Amino acid sequence: MKARRKRNADGVFEIKVPDFLLKAAAARSQSHAAQLLYKLDSLNAPNQELMASGVRQILMGMGVDLDDVNFSGTPARVAKLYAEMLTPQVNNWKTFPATTSDMVILRNHRVIALCPHHLMPAVISCSVGYIPHKLTLGLSKLARAVEEQLTRPILQEDLANAVAEKLNKVLEPKGCGIVLVGTHGCMKFRGVESDGDVVTSVMKGVLLLNPAARMEFLQLIGRP
Predict the structure, then answer these.
(1) Cα(78)–Cα(105) distance, rounded to whole angstroms?
(2) How far is it, in rounded angstroms, from Cα 143 to Cα 109?
(3) Is the dihedral of CA 178, 181, 185, 186 positive or negative?
(4) Which of 11, 30, 132, 138 is 20 to 30 A from 167 (CA-CA)?
(5) Which domains are seen in the chain, by residue range?
(6) Cα(45)–Cα(151) distance, rounded to whole angstroms?
(7) Please, are residues 176 and 164 in contact by the beta-carbon 8 Å criterion?
(8) What are the pLDDT digits (tens) for 23-62?
């Protein structure tokens, strides 16, 4: 069956398309969109072959014999290591109707991020909390909220802001707070060679505007 056309009262042709053709076109459009998203995800995924090629260049620059049994598999192993670090599990952001207006806090969740300046690891202890408004988040999802940001090397400051922005967007809480305490390889093993921690925090909503609420949050997580 073909699409039919006829003139309307103004003499303009109108095209009448059968419903099954519209549905078929919509299905093709959805399929095309899914394929496009898959391609985009693939483009954003860590490219292990490309990373391994770069590691080979670094080892050659170090004067390493790539035929040595200790180094022959190193480029692939390092690429796999980075791919694992930069491929966190997907956070489905499961929410539930809020039954409390008390603080919900995840304290001292450890993640390992990559510093964008030197590509060295940073071990970061994360405390994430919020005061529910209409929704609460599945408890494990607070940890995933941090981990899902680790798909690329990232500054600790940017990590804190990204988590806070996502919590605000998904939950629209009365307030949220993120405190990150990190030990950075680029400080510990080079330059100043400091064992000191780096602390960054982001407060939004009630936790930013109400000193008493902010103090309660900091006391509960163990003020850095």
Answers:
(1) 35
(2) 7
(3) positive
(4) 30
(5) 4-44 (no CATH), 48-85 (no CATH), 95-221 (3.30.1130.10)
(6) 8
(7) yes
(8) 555 555 554 544 444 444 444 688 999 999 999 999 999 9
